[in-house]
From TrEMBL:
Keywords, ordered alphabetically: Oxidoreductase
Organism listed in the record: uncultured spirochete
Gene name per UniProt: kdd
Protein name: L-erythro-3,5-diaminohexanoate dehydrogenase
Keyword Oxidoreductase applies: yes
Family annotation (InterPro entries): GroES-like_sf (IPR011032), KDD_N (IPR058932), NAD(P)-bd_dom_sf (IPR036291)
Annotated SUPFAM superfamilies: GroES-like, NAD(P)-binding Rossmann-fold domains
Pfam families reported in the protein's UniProt record: KDD_N (PF26370)
EC code(s) of this entry: 1.4.1.11
Amino acid sequence: MPMGDKYGTHRVIEPAGAMPQTAQKLDNDMSKLFDNEILVDVIALNIDSASFTQIENEAAGDEEKIKAIIMNIVSTRGKQQNPVTGSGGMFIGRVAKIGPALASRDLKPGDKIASLVSLSLTPLKIDRILAVHKDIDRVEIEGQAILFESGIYAKLPDDMDERLALAALDVAGAPAQTAKLVKPGDKVLVLGAGGKSGLLCCYEAMKRVGPTGRVVANIHSERSRTYIQDMGLAHEIVVADATKPVEFLTQVLSANKGHEFDIAISCVNIQGTEMAAILPVRDGGIVYFFSMATSFTRAALGAEGVGKDVLMIIGNGYTKDHAEITLWELRENPKLRAFFESQYVK
């Protein structure tokens, strides 16, 4: 086969000229492999939390309906990109073929890898859905996917279960960005602290703020309080509804001794929480939106409307060394690793 475009535009069917992520439909014909593509036999998909929540709600929790919705998305679009949330997820699989132009890479057929690019831009074909794990947003499948020349991936480590690695790598951008943003002495608010990304961000924030900083973990219900306390992932834990920003503001500021925060990190998986992340942050502070449920229009106009001069960062799922940083968190914290194993190694 000829060389394809480095970024995968040769797989775009419509609209012409679009990038794979914004395209409405991709070519997912796995019988043709371009010289700079990698073909992977997919084992499992980790669906983005906001996307899976929307699909599960649409299906009223019925597993067969969840399967049907996912199959329809992939057959219609050639990729797993939720048409409502626009988000995807990631996969793990075994390398089937490597295009000759990429033969110099440290990769060979049979290697198990995790994709570190979104399913929203990844050509995907599902032959069969084997199982749906609603509690961890994971779908086991038989199918194949394509990684483009620009696509990043991680070889699965030898010292941990692949399901554990997948759970962590699925949200690797969040804790790695937290490690870069948080400084000693910072006052940090983590919204949605009870989920995967929230827990990892809390751990990284606690490590970075030092003895003079403070980390406040926001959770939606009491269910998460015990394990956050047991793992020592926050100085204070606040049960508050982030969809009610004024009430939320009062509760989280109280947990921070009445002071505004230097940084807010949003890991929530529902819509309408932008102002809850913005309001508690001081002028000149940082709001990091990792959640794919975020409306950046609402965030931008909302901050303007309340006169908040804050730096708002889009939750890019990639930052340099993010896979290594995130997996290292599990290696250096036995309690966090044990919790992840209890929840995601199923």
